[in-house]
Specification:
Elements (H helix, E strand, L loop, with lengths): L1 E7 L3 E9 L4 E5 L5 E2 L9
Antiparallel strand pairs: 1-2, 2-3, 2-4
């Protein structure tokens, strides 16, 4: 069975996709970095 997990944080999210069976789990996709929903923007001029 293929499973996808999404972990939603305040400004980030993580996605992991894996094949899962009773005997083993094989990760198909796991990003090497975090995805950011928003980026901090400086208001200083």
């Amino acid at each position: 069975m293929r499973a996808a997990v999404i972990d939603l944080g305040t400004n980030t999210f993580h996605l992991i996709i894996a094949d899962v069976s009773a005997q083993e789990r094989k990760i198909l996709y796991k990003p090497p970095f975090r995805f950011y929903w928003a980026r901090a923007v400086s208001t200083k001029t």
